[in-house]
Design a protein that fits this description.
The complex is a heterodimer of chains A (323) and B (260). With 323 residues, chain A is mainly α. Chain A has twelve helices and two strands; from the N terminus they run H-H-H-H-H-E-E-H-H-H-H-H-H-H. Chain B has helices spanning 43-50, 73-79, 96-102, 112-117, 120-139, 155-168, 185-202, 213-219, 237-241, 244-252, and strands spanning 5-14, 17-27, 32-36, 58-63, 66-67, 81-83, 173-177, 205-209, 222-227, 230-235. Chain B folds into two domains: 1-80 and 174-179 and 205-260, 3-Layer(aba) Sandwich (Rossmann fold); 88-170, no CATH class.
């Protein structure tokens, strides 16, 4: 019961209270900030899932960049609707993840982490080199998402005709985020989630009970990258441009930090982690050149004091909790 | 008659070192067969090859006439040959019941997507997993610790948990890795009775690798003895006790540890 109430409060907060607050205070720049948080948390959710099978994934930026490019190319070159290009971007990223994942997911611990760290750079360099991605100039002037209607009924309005496309992007990002985390919650509490937990704790034992661990690893990595691709594609659409530098190694590291900060044992950890990390960085802006120093020190302290993440403060025995 | 498990001319070399050399023996249905030998005799290596956790260099292992060596462990488990580990290999942050539920993976009929969407088959599976887990917990006499987290259990219970996880897969052959190691007399006797019960009541053929001589003599229908990677004897406990080669292997050299 409490969980349903919590969900209702959360939905009211993001869909009603936040827009009302922003409308009243006139701080429309918050729309962009919060939209970014929502999208980054989707990509972070993917990273969290790879943590769930015991892999440290510092390569989500690669898949976000792939998603952003695929969507941008489909929209600008093929004239496809953004809303159709969004799942395709996710699927393409997932497909790439399968091809890359088969060889590298055998690696564990720091070895997987190091390889995944390289991926972002590889995709950046590929984007610089390929003609279709337009090299360093990137893809610019991507049109805003068009409308979607079925039988004359408008499901999604054309963003270009809207008075306030920022609000529309905010809503779209929040809906995607809610869907993502609902699916994640469901997944973690379903059989696949149980198998992931068994593999996270002991891969040999998991394979001895008949779990095809290499198959599950690839599936999970593909889902993870799908989320990265979706988040990246939406980001490109908001910025209306994609450059090879849109997602960098630092972004990949941030996706991972979001998971650490929120808590690896909690499905909703990456959401909270992204929010805190994103705002935390902005709030420290006043410190000028000491910003990075203060930021990193705070992160280190947080990880020392709360090794299981921020959510371990309030939800000690929650389902899906590990360690 | 055909044997349930056949080890045929199995050899394992690690570089220049021969861990197992031309080992051949059979395991009959419904028997308890032990593989013993001094430290470094190659028992564990043999064990890993039978469960496909290691590939053989030459030779093969057959289960019901089908090759099960040089495959993936999960495929061997799917065929019904399941190994257990020593006590540190468990699902640490799961309870006993959760471990047994997750270990019923091979009994699942719904697809992973079915579980995600909550299909009817998935619901039936989940109910049946719970029921089976409760039955197994009762069978193994673990009701009092069913909801304990595995990392909090004492060593003796961990061993039983390992066997429970193996049994949850509903195996035909259970391979036990040193089930009596580090146990005192009472714990050993309990475990001996448990293994027997598993064989008698659930019709599971058991092959185990072990150091503990008295326990092995007590529990085994037949024994295979390895020494320096070679098989030096095979027979009933009485035959093994009077086998000169075995006595020599265990008592002949002062360097060898006598596994008591």
């Amino acid at each position: 019961m409490i969980q349903w109430a919590g969900l209702a409060v959360f939905l009211l907060a993001i869909f009603v209270a936040v827009p009302a607050f922003i409308g009243a205070s006139g701080r429309t720049d918050f729309y962009y900030t919060l939209t970014s948080v929502a999208l980054l948390s989707i990509a972070s959710a993917g990273v969290w899932l790879t943590f769930y099978i015991g892999r440290i994934n510092i390569g989500q930026g690669a898949f976000a960049l792939i998603g952003a490019y695929v969507s941008a190319i489909l929209v600008t070159k093929a004239g496809m609707s953004f809303w159709l290009s969004l799942p395709l971007a996710g699927l393409f990223a997932a497909g790439v993840a399968v091809v890359i994942g088969v060889p590298i997911l055998r690696l564990r611990g720091v070895y997987f982490a190091m390889i995944s760290l390289v991926l972002t750079q590889v995709v950046t360099l590929t984007a610089l080199a390929l003609p279709i991605t337009n090299g360093a100039k990137g893809i610019t002037s991507i049109p805003l998402p068009g409308g979607v209607s079925i039988f004359g009924l408008t499901l999604i309005p054309d963003f270009a005709t809207l008075e306030n496309p920022r609000l529309a992007f905010y809503y779209a990002a929040c809906v995607l985020m809610v869907l993502t985390f609902a699916a994640m919650y469901r997944l973690v509490n379903s059989r696949l989630g149980h198998l992931c937990r068994s593999m996270q704790q002991n891969e040999e034992l998991a394979s001895s009970i008949g779990v095809n661990i290499s198959y599950i690893r690839v599936i999970v990595f593909a889902i993870s990258s799908f989320l990265g691709g979706i988040g990246g594609a939406m980001f490109g659409s908001i910025a209306q441009s994609v450059y090879p530098s849109s997602f960098q190694v630092a972004d990949s590291v941030n996706f991972m930090l979001n998971c650490f900060l929120g808590g690896l044992g909690y499905v909703f950890g990456p959401m909270l982690g992204t929010l805190v990390l994103y705002f935390g960085w902005d709030l420290l802006f006043e410190l000028g050149r000491f910003q990075l120093l203060a930021y990193s020190s705070l992160l280190i302290i947080l990880m020392l004091v709360l090794p299981n993440g921020l959510l371990s403060l309030r939800l000690p025995g929650r389902k899906g909790a590990d360690k | 008659m055909s044997h349930l498990l056949e080890v045929r001319h199995v050899t394992k070399k690690f570089g220049g070192l021969t861990a197992n050399s031309d080992i051949s023996f059979n395991v009959n249905e419904n028997e308890i067969l032990s593989v013993i030998g001094p430290n470094g005799a190659g028992k564990s290596t043999l064990f890993k090859m039978i469960s496909s956790f290691l590939p053989t260099t030459t030779g093969e292992v057959l289960y019901k006439g089908e090759r099960i060596s040089n495959l993936k462990p999960h495929i061997v488990a799917r065929k019904g040959v399941v190994r257990t580990f020593q006590e540190t290999t468990i699902f640490k942050s799961m309870t006993v019941r959760e471990s047994i539920i997750v270990a019923q993976h091979l009994r699942a009929r719904a697809s992973l997507a079915g579980y995600f969407w909550g299909s009817r088959t998935a619901h039936e599976d989940v109910n049946s997993f719970g029921q089976y887990a409760d039955d197994l917990i009762a069978f193994l006499g673990m009701s009092d610790i069913a909801n304990e987290q595995a990392s909090n259990l004492p060593q003796g219970n961990l061993r039983a948990l390992g066997i429970a996880i193996g049994l949850a897969t509903d195996p035909k052959v259970l391979l036990l890795d040193e089930p009596f190691a580090g146990m005192n007399h009472d714990e050993t006797m309990k475990m001996v009775n448990l293994v027997r019960k598993v064989r008698d009541d659930r019709g599971v053929t058991v092959m185990l690798v072990e150091h503990d001589m008295p326990a092995v003599m007590n529990i085994s229908d037949r024994i295979v003895v390895l020494n320096f990677g070679e098989m030096i004897a095979e027979g009933t406990p009485a035959e093994i006790q009077n086998n000169e080669k075995v006595i020599e292997a265990y008592l002949g050299s002062a360097d060898d540890e006598i596994g008591i």
